[in-house]
Amino acid sequence: MSRTRNDVLISAFLLLLLVWVVWEARNWPSRTRLFPWSIGIPGLGLALVQFGIASWKAFHRQSNSEVDEDRGEPGEIAASGASLDPKVLTRRALSITAWTISFALGFWLFGFKVGGVLLSTAFLRFQARESWKMSILYGLGVYLFFFAGFEMALGFPLPPGIIAAALGLQSFDWYVINPILNLLLRR
After folding, report:
1. Is the confidence at residue 71, as pLDDT, over 80?
2. What is the pLDDT of residues 120-136, one digit of tens each?
3. Using CA atoms, how far apart are residues 110 and 166, in angstroms rounded to an integer?
């Protein structure tokens, strides 16, 4: 099967799955329906765009005789990694695996807010080789996303992490952020 055909089939499957999710939630109570609709409706729009692009590429490829079947589409060979050394591919795969495990452990040990700050900053600085300033700013952005998006806007408290819970403490950031918020809001 060609890659373009696979793209169309996967896009169609995802589109049908999201249509089903949105359709099933239509008669649910409004609070229950909020999550599947908040994920499903934007996802449905994106899946529709992806399906359109994949279909257009498949149709365009069939009608365009300039594409050489041996070479494939531009960038397809580079995307497949065919020209890379196996040692480089192994090193990259191990790096991706190590960072994925690190993020999972960090979120489990320190919680989403603190783990997100620490690990996104470490990843950007040491793996992506960003400057300290940019890494810290992005890390703080991750913290603000979790804090403002989940705790303040949705009222959904994120778990403090296994270390803080084992010590009987609030999340580690609580001891810094709460006094600042009290000062700013004059509680």
Report:
1. no
2. 999 999 999 999 999 99
3. 11
The burial class, CB within 10 Å (0-12 / 13-18 / 19+), for 32 is exposed
Which residue type sits at 40? G
Q: What sign results for the dihedral spanned by CA atoms 55, 60, 65, 70?
A: negative
* Residue pointed to by tokens 């996303």: 145
User: What single-letter DSSP state applies at residue 187?
Assistant: -
What span, in angstroms and rounded, lies between the C-alpha atoms of 44 and 19? 7
Contact in structure between 11 and 51 (CB atoms under 8 Å): yes
- CB-side neighbour CA atoms (13 Å) of 172: 18
* pLDDT band (50, 70, 90) for residue 155: confident
Q: For helices 132-146 and 86-122, what crossing angle results, to 10°?
A: 70
Given a cut of 60, whether residue 90 has pLDDT beyond it is yes
Binned at pLDDT 50, 70 and 90, residue 142 comes out as very high
| 0.85 exceeded by pTM | no
Q: Do 6 and 73 form a contact (C-beta atoms < 8 A)? A: no
CA distance between the termini of the chain: 64
